[in-house]
Design goal:
The complex is a heterodimer of chains A (270) and B (189).
Chain A lengths: L2 E4 L5 H10 L4 E7 L5 E7 L2 E7 L6 H7 L5 H10 L5 H10 L5 H19 L5 E7 L14 H21 L7 E3 L14 H7 L8 H8 L3 H13 L3 E3 L20 H13 L1
Antiparallel strand pairs in A: 1-5, 2-3, 2-5, 3-4, 6-7
Helix pairs in contact in A: 1-6, 2-3, 2-5, 6-9
Chain B lengths: L1 E8 L6 H8 L5 E6 L10 E14 L2 E7 L8 H7 L4 E7 L6 H14 L4 E6 L9 H7 L8 E3 L5 H22 L12
Parallel strand pairs in B: 1-4, 1-5, 5-6, 6-7
Antiparallel strand pairs in B: 2-3, 3-4
The chains are: A alpha+beta (270), B alpha/beta (189).
C-alpha cells in the first residue's frame, strides 16, 4: 500500500521520521509545486541510500564534480575511458587512475545525497508517494545515510521557516509603505522579487494575493516581505483580532467498574 | 435510568456520522445542512450541530454516542458536547493526509478539556490510499502508548471493536485511579 499525501500536510521531517522509525524500504517520490521539480529518494531499512532530483540521477562523475572532488576535465577524461558507463565502472576507473580513493567516492556520494535532501526541506508543498520495496537501479552506487542526523538538520531548517512564520504569521493582510521620517531610503538595493512585490502594494492587495499573482511560495514571500520590513520600506497593516474566550475545563465523567463491565458485555453481544 | 456518554470527534468528513450510525439502535438523530462553501466538493451535507446515537445496555443503563460537528467554524460546540463524557474517539480519514494536522489539533483541544481516556481510529482502511494505523500514529506525532486502531466506520464489527478498545482504556485508567484497597487480615493456613 503506497503512502500518499502532500508536504503541505505532512512535512518532510515527519515523513523521514516515519521511514526511520518504521525501518521502511522503498522509494519516496515528491512532485514539487511551482516548478520546483521532482525528487526521488530511496530508502533501505530506514536509511537513505539514493536521492535524485529531476528524473534520472546524475552519473557518478557528475556527482563528484558537484561535490568538488573532481574537476570537469577529470570527469570528462574518466567518462571517455568508460565503456558501459555504470557508476561501478566509473568508480573503479577513478580509483585505478589514482584520482580518488574509495573513501573519497563514498564521502562524495554521501554529501551529494545530503545536499539533495536539504534542498527538499525548502519545499513547503508537493505531492508525495511512498512505494514500499522499490530500490534504485543496480548500476547506481548507494551509500547508506542514517536519517537521525538528517532529521536534526531538517528540523533546524524547518525552524528557520517557522521563525519567518512567527515574524509574519498572517499573509491575509495588506502591506503599506512605511512612513518614517528617519528612514534613509538612499543606497537601498532591491532584488527583482522585492521590486515585483513593491509594485503591488496597496490597501486592497493582501500579501497572499501578491504571492499568488507572482507565483511565489509562502516561504519566499515571507522572506521578501521580511527583507523589505527590515530595510524600513514597508509595514504590515494589522488585522483586527477577535476577542478570545477563556476555555472552561469540562467535567470528566466518573463511573464505577461495574457499569463499565456492563457496557463492555453488551457491546460484545451487539 | 443511568446514561453514559462517549464523544466521536474528528475532522470534517472523517466518518463520524457513519461511525455512530453503524452501531446505534435508533436512527441517528442528525442535524445536517447543505454545505455552501468550498468543502461542498467532498460531501453534500455536513453535521453542523451534532449526531446522536444510542445503545441500550440494560433496563437501567444506556450508552449515548455524540458526534461533533466537523467543520472548524462549529468548534464552539465541542466543549459543550464533551461535558461529562466517559471517553472520546478521534476519527481520522486515513486516506486524506491533508486532514492529519487538523485531527491532531482536535485531539489536543479535547485533551485540554479534561483528562479523559481516548483512542484514535484510523478510518477508511478499505480505501486503497489509506495510511496504515501505525504509520498514521507516527505522522500524528502520538505517544507510543496512544492506541491508534484501524477502522471502517461503515462496518458494525469494526466500530464495535473501537468502542470496546476505548472501554478497555477507560477500565485500565479507572483501575489505576482506584484508591488502594484496605489491608485485610488473612488467616494463615
Amino acid at each position: 500500500m503506497a503512502l500518499k499525501g502532500n508536504l503541505r500536510d505532512v512535512g518532510l521531517n515527519q515523513l523521514l521520521n516515519l521511514i526511520y522509525l518504521a525501518h521502511k524500504t522503498g522509494a519516496l517520490t515528491i512532485q514539487g509545486d511551482q516548478g520546483a521539480g521532482n525528487a526521488r529518494l530511496y530508502f533501505k531499512e530506514g536509511k537513505l541510500i539514493q536521492a535524485t532530483l529531476d528524473g534520472r540521477g546524475p552519473r557518478l562523475t557528475d556527482v563528484m564534480v558537484k561535490v568538488g572532488k573532481l574537476t570537469p576535465d577529470q570527469a570528462k577524461a574518466v567518462q571517455a575511458r568508460s565503456r558501459v558507463d555504470t557508476d561501478k565502472e566509473l568508480g573503479l576507473l577513478m580509483i585505478q587512475s589514482g584520482i580518488l580513493s574509495q573513501g573519497d567516492i563514498i564521502q562524495g556520494v554521501k554529501n551529494y545525497l545530503l545536499e539533495t535532501v536539504y534542498q527538499l526541506f525548502t519545499w513547503p508543498s508537493g505531492a508525495f508517494r511512498f512505494d514500499p520495496n522499490q530500490l534504485p537501479p543496480e548500476e547506481r552506487i548507494t551509500v547508506a545515510v542514517n536519517l537521525d542526523h538528517l532529521i536534526i538538520e531538517g528540523s533546524r531548517r524547518v525552524q528557520e521557516w517557522e521563525q519567518l512564520q512567527d515574524i509574519l504569521p498572517d499573509l491575509d493582510v495588506p502591506l503599506r509603505f512605511a512612513e518614517r521620517s528617519d528612514a534613509n531610503l538612499r543606497n537601498i538595493n532591491l532584488s527583482v522579487e522585492q521590486w515585483k512585490v513593491i509594485s503591488f502594494i496597496n490597501a486592497r492587495n493582501t500579501i497572499r494575493q501578491i504571492a499568488n499573482f507572482l507565483k511565489i511560495d509562502e516561504f519566499q514571500i515571507r522572506r521578501v516581505v521580511h527583507g523589505l520590513q527590515t530595510a524600513g520600506l514597508v509595514d504590515v497593516m494589522p488585522a483586527p483580532t477577535p476577542p478570545r474566550s477563556v476555555p472552561v475545563p469540562a467535567a470528566a465523567a466518573t463511573v464505577g467498574r461495574g457499569v463499565l463491565l456492563r457496557v463492555i458485555d453488551r457491546l460484545r453481544r451487539l | 435510568m443511568q446514561t453514559v456518554k462517549m464523544v466521536v470527534t474528528g475532522p470534517f468528513s472523517s466518518g463520524k456520522t457513519s461511525f455512530i450510525g453503524s452501531v446505534s439502535e435508533i436512527p441517528v438523530v442528525r442535524t445536517e445542512r447543505k454545505i455552501s462553501d468550498e468543502t461542498r466538493s467532498i460531501k453534500a451535507q455536513t453535521t453542523v450541530a451534532m449526531d446522536f446515537g444510542r445503545i441500550t445496555i440494560d433496563k437501567d443503563l444506556a450508552l449515548y454516542l455524540f458526534g461533533t460537528p466537523g467543520q472548524k467554524r462549529f468548534d464552539f460546540m465541542w466543549e459543550i458536547l464533551s461535558e461529562g463524557m466517559l471517553g472520546f474517539i478521534v476519527l481520522v480519514d486515513s486516506a486524506r493526509p491533508e486532514t492529519f494536522r487538523e485531527a491532531r489539533r482536535i485531539l489536543d483541544t479535547f485533551r485540554g478539556y479534561s483528562n479523559t481516556p481516548f483512542v484514535v481510529a484510523a478510518n477508511k482502511q478499505d480505501d486503497e490510499d489509506a495510511w496504515p494505523a501505525e504509520d498514521l500514529k507516527i505522522a500524528l506525532g502520538l505517544d507510543t502508548d496512544t492506541r491508534v486502531l484501524p477502522c471502517i466506520a461503515t462496518q458494525k464489527e469494526s466500530v464495535k471493536s473501537i468502542l470496546l478498545e476505548l472501554l478497555y482504556v477507560i477500565l485500565e485508567q479507572a483501575t489505576e485511579e482506584l484508591p488502594p484497597a484496605p489491608k485485610q487480615n488473612r488467616k494463615e493456613t
